[in-house]
Design a protein that fits this description.
Elements (H helix, E strand, L loop, with lengths): L2 E5 L5 H11 L6 H9 L4 E8 L5 E10 L2 E9 L8 H15 L4 E7 L3 H9 L3 E10 L2 E9 L3
Parallel strand pairs: 4-5
Antiparallel strand pairs: 1-2, 2-3, 3-4, 5-7, 6-7
The structure holds coenzyme A.
The site of coenzyme A has 19 residues, from strand 4, helix 3 and helix 4.
Length: about 150
């Protein structure tokens, strides 16, 4: 899959929200993305498009605070899953974290989210903890990817 990754802009928000609402049971509202893009100096968000097309098909975000980073979101439109877009976005987030000085990258994932867990494992994330009822009635697994020298 040939993708173009670019920093998420306010013009991307309608397409991002469409994916967000069709993907998550508790979708972020528009102003959460707005704040991340406009007001959060530690946040880096990216949108993925099929090469040569304008439509956003996926996105991801990360916070980088000194030597730690935290992946806040990652999603691919359901029609474009299992074709490599999630991997490309995740690699991009990891490269961004590394380039900005992070030594480790954390994230939370639903216990039942096999697709995401498998993806993260493939990218050398390890489970280091469990946050009880993080998603109302479901636990989150806390995962970390450490960058080695
Ligand atoms: C998780 C998600 C981003 C993966 O995106 P994707 O574009 O489908 O991922 P890729 O095609 O790059 O897949 C990469 C690897 O992930 C794993 N994977 C992806 N989908 C999978 C599935 N349905 N079941 C099991 N493993 C899966 C596989 O290991 C795959 O590697 P392979 O193709 O060599 O087998 C996508 O499923 C999604 O948007 N899910 C809903 C939102 C979400 O759960 N986000 C994560 C929140 S923590």
């Amino acid at each position: 899959m040939l993708l173009e990754i670019s920093p998420m802009s306010l013009q991307d928000l309608e397409a991002v929200l469409e994916i967000e609402r069709s993907t998550f049971s508790f979708p972020w509202p528009k102003n959460s993305f707005y704040r991340e893009i406009i007001n959060n100096d530690y946040a880096y968000y990216f949108a993925a498009r099929l090469k040569g097309e304008n439509k956003v098909i996926g996105y991801g975000g990360i916070w980088v605070l000194f030597d730690e980073a935290h992946i806040t979101t990652l999603a691919v439109h359901s029609l474009h899953r299992q074709a490599g877009a999630g991997s490309i976005l995740l690699s991009h987030l990891l490269e961004e974290a590394l380039a900005r000085g992070a030594r480790q990258v954390f994230l939370e994932v639903r216990d039942s989210n096999l697709a995401a867990r498998t993806l993260y494992k493939k990218y050398d994330f390890e489970i280091i903890g469990r946050r009880k009822n993080y998603y109302y009635h479901e636990d989150a697994l806390l995962m970390v990817r450490k960058f080695t020298d």
